């Protein structure tokens, strides 16, 4: 009713998965009422996991914020205990782009766990021996 009363013929919706599901529902409602309204979804996600595009809206801002978190964790780890460890969990659902870009950009991370790579805890290639070794040498 809102779109119809204002004679809107084009609706652009910017957002992630949930926003696009809502955009589809708006499209279906317009179609059911035979309204001539074009509904266009523009992807925006900090996950940067959209096929066919290099960088999604919001990704670089999220990387910058994540790098600030990394710097903060580094300061806290160095100031509170000898050989302190900072652990940061970032958003990214099932994509590690944000974690990888932030870690590489900061240069202050010794290990980064991303969903695309299975985690091995123990053994020669395990993350725990690596972390233990890094804590002892720093």
UniProtKB/TrEMBL annotation:
Domain of life per record: Eukaryota
Co-factor(s): Mg(2+)
InterPro entries: ATP_PFK, PFKA, Phosphofructokinase_dom, PKF_sf
SUPFAM superfamilies the record matches: Phosphofructokinase
Domain Phosphofructokinase, first and last residues per copy: 3-122
Keywords for this protein: Kinase, Magnesium, Metal-binding, Transferase
GO molecular function, one term: 6-phosphofructokinase activity
Coiled coil: none
A GO BP annotation: fructose 6-phosphate metabolic process
Designated name of the protein: Phosphofructokinase domain-containing protein
């Amino acid at each position: 009713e809102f779109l119809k009363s204002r004679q809107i013929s084009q609706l652009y919706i910017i957002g992630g998965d949930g926003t696009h599901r809502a955009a589809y529902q708006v499209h279906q409602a317009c179609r059911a009422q035979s309204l001539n309204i074009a509904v266009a979804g523009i992807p925006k996600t900090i996950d940067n996991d959209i096929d066919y595009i290099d960088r999604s809206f919001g990704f670089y801002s999220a990387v910058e914020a994540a790098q600030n978190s990394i710097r903060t964790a580094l300061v806290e780890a160095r100031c509170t205990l000898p050989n302190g460890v900072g652990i940061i969990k970032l958003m990214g659902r099932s994509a590690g782009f944000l974690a990888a870009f932030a870690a590489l950009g900061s240069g202050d991370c010794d290990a980064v766990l991303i969903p695309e790579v299975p985690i091995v805890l123990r053994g020669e290639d395990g993350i725990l021996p690596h972390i233990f070794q890094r804590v002892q040498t720093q």
